[in-house]
């Protein structure tokens, strides 16, 4: 049963004991530019997702249609950025009502999801996959703020190894480019060591800052303002005398016709 704007209806409720239903609206995800994380032939766009609903609950809900590769929750529709889960970043939950992007492993799973019965009521929370609420949810969020020290240290060590590896690659690339000519045939020469020479971009920025600083100090003091006015008046007088001289020369040559 399709609704306005092409959305289909799905009835859900929190658990078996809940008497009221909640309505989810979904349709096939479609964008002008194809995205690698959300391919249009495998992605389902869901709106009116309740605040207590989690990625795991959404994955279980549509998992009956086929394998779910990933679920993205957002406050409002927009682009998806791939983010790594970390023990240091636990406050990434979307508050309030949200939208979801369900990415299936196969296009056939998306077709099966679009054929779900709108009259069937599905559960978001059960004994096997409970959705935490209230005090249980707050206690779980509090425990996540203080992760296991050994696990945290392992994550830090992994991050630092990747960081050092990238730094070494950047240094090697800089060494390779240092002796190579650019597009115009110029070779950048600079001293190495702890304090290498400034790059072209840095040098240009330094020169620009010096110019701005020098310009900002012009006419800062009163004597500078007086000197500037005197120089301006002197230039005007000089130009006036030069114009008088030109007019006199043109009169003498009988080529002066003012009217």
TrEMBL record:
Gene3D superfamilies given in the database record: 3.30.70.330, 6.10.250.1770
SMART domains named among the record's database cross-references: RRM (SM00360)
Highest taxon above the source species: Eukaryota
One family name in Pfam for this protein: RRM_Rrp7
Start and end residues of each RRM domain: 43-125
Region ranges (Disordered): 173-200
Molecular function GO labels: RNA binding
GO biological process: ribosomal small subunit assembly; rRNA processing
CC per GO annotation: CURI complex; UTP-C complex
Family, as annotated: Belongs to the RRP7 family.
Protein name: RRM domain-containing protein
Species assigned in the record: Nematostella vectensis (Starlet sea anemone)
Lineage, uppermost ranks: Eukaryota, Metazoa, Cnidaria, Anthozoa, Hexacorallia
């Amino acid at each position: 049963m399709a609704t306005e704007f092409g959305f289909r209806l799905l009835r859900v409720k929190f658990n078996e004991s809940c008497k009221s239903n909640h309505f989810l609206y979904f349709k096939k995800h479609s964008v002008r530019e194809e995205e690698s994380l959300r391919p249009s032939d495998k992605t389902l766009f869901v709106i009116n997702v309740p605040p207590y609903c989690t990625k795991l609950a959404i994955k279980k809900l549509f998992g009956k249609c086929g394998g779910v590769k990933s679920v993205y929750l957002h406050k409002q529709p927009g682009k998806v950025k791939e983010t790594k889960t970390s023990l240091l970043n636990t406050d990434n939950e979307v508050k309030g009502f949200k939208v979801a992007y369900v990415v299936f492993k196969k296009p056939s799973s998306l077709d099966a999801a679009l054929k779900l019965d709108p009259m069937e009521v599905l559960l978001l929370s059960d004994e096997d996959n409970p959705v935490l609420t209230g005090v249980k949810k707050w206690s779980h969020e509090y425990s996540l703020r203080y992760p296991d020290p050994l696990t945290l240290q392992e994550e830090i060590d992994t991050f630092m190894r990747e960081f050092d590896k990238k730094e070494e690659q950047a240094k090697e690339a800089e060494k390779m480019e240092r002796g190579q000519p650019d597009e115009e045939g110029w070779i950048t020469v600079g001293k190495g060591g702890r304090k290498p020479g400034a790059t072209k971009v840095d040098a240009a920025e330094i020169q620009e800052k010096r110019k701005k600083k020098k310009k900002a100090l012009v006419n800062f003091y009163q004597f500078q303002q007086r000197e500037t006015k005197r120089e301006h008046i002197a230039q005007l007088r000089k130009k006036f005398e030069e114009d008088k001289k030109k007019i006199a020369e043109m009169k003498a040559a009988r080529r002066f016709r003012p009217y």
